[in-house]
Design goal:
hpI Integrase, Chain A; 3-stranded antiparallel sheet; 5 strands
Length: about 300
């Protein structure tokens, strides 16, 4: 709270911040008003820490498609940043770059980039919507250089080995079913985790919770229908009632017990693109996979030149 008083030919301004009174004298009233506004803003800025900003940003991520993945990243940011309890105004660009460099020694460049994008978005919220900050310390921070895009499907012998390992435990069978369904349909982990029984029909299903926010219809092959049928009666609402962390942990543990440690769950999507391309035309394939631009399919298509030569 501020008050401005005229004393002779000068203006005296008083600002109360957290019970402490600040004052200054100016020749012009507009200078006094500007100083009072700046001082009050400083008081607001100093009272808000990065931990509070995370709490404000959490509901935004929870409302996004594939929210479980985003929430996992947010929890990791909360655990790893060094400035969690610093006032926002004291967080510097160097702190952000130090965080980037440290995380780059622990995880893949793509993961660091995703974390930095979330942090940058949080600071934008603090500036534009909350009024807690003047400038974004992420501005000018370069993302880590990423290796060439991964272009790999999953060979049948790799699928058989990983599925066999997953099926050795009853609790892991759900991950086996998700992996196989992704190979049949090209569905992402988050899309399967969000799938509800109300969205499943006899020959197809509707994805309401997709990465780009578009509703998508998925035709089901005979094998895909069998996998879905195996899930009947297990949970009344969700087809796959587990979370992202459980899927990642169990899948990694299983594939690391096979000779095929390089396989990733997401490779199933690339394998699906290659397999479905032999049955669907380009526009049908783009619609099923969920790409607005059919050219994006080239990043997933993984058929080898030898395989194409055999078809020729």
């Amino acid at each position: 709270m501020s008050s401005i008083q005229k004393r002779g030919d000068k203006w005296r301004v008083f600002v109360l911040i957290d019970g402490v009174r600040h004052s200054k004298t100016f020749k012009l009233k507009k200078e006094a008003v500007a100083w009072a506004n700046d001082k009050e803003l400083e008081g607001v800025l100093e009272n808000h820490k990065f931990r509070e900003l995370i709490a404000k940003y959490r509901p935004i991520l929870e409302a996004r498609p594939n929210s479980s993945s985003y929430m996992s990243k947010l929890r990791k940011i909360e655990e790893t940043v060094s400035f969690i309890d610093l006032p926002l105004e004291l967080i510097t660009k160097k702190m952000i770059t130090d965080y980037r460099d440290k995380r780059s020694t622990e995880v893949a460049p793509s993961t660091v980039t995703k974390d930095l994008k979330i942090i940058h978005a949080m600071f934008k919220l603090a500036i534009n919507d909350l009024g807690w900050l003047r400038t974004n310390p992420c501005t000018g921070v370069a993302f880590p250089k990423e290796p060439p895009s991964r272009r790999r499907g999953v060979a049948q012998h790799e699928i058989d080995a990983i599925v066999a390992e997953l099926n050795t435990h009853t609790t892991r069978r759900i991950i086996s079913q998700m992996f196989l369904l992704s190979i049949e349909t090209g569905m992402r982990q988050g899309e399967m985790l969000a799938l509800k029984w109300s969205e499943v029909r006899e020959k197809s299903l509707t994805l309401l919770d997709t990465k780009n926010g578009d509703k998508r219809e998925i035709p089901l092959s005979l094998r895909a229908r069998e996998i879905i049928q195996e899930r009947r009666g297990i949970d009344p609402e969700k087809v796959f009632p587990v979370d992202f962390q459980f899927v990642r942990s169990i899948f990694c543990r299983a594939k690391n017990k096979t000779p095929y440690k390089d396989v990733r769950f997401h490779d199933a999507r690339a394998e699906a693109v290659t397999r479905l391309s032999k049955k669907l035309d380009l526009l049908q394939l783009a619609k099923v996979i969920g790409h607005r631009d059919p050219r994006s399919l080239l990043f997933y298509y993984s058929e080898s030149a030898d395989s194409m030569a055999d078809r020729l």
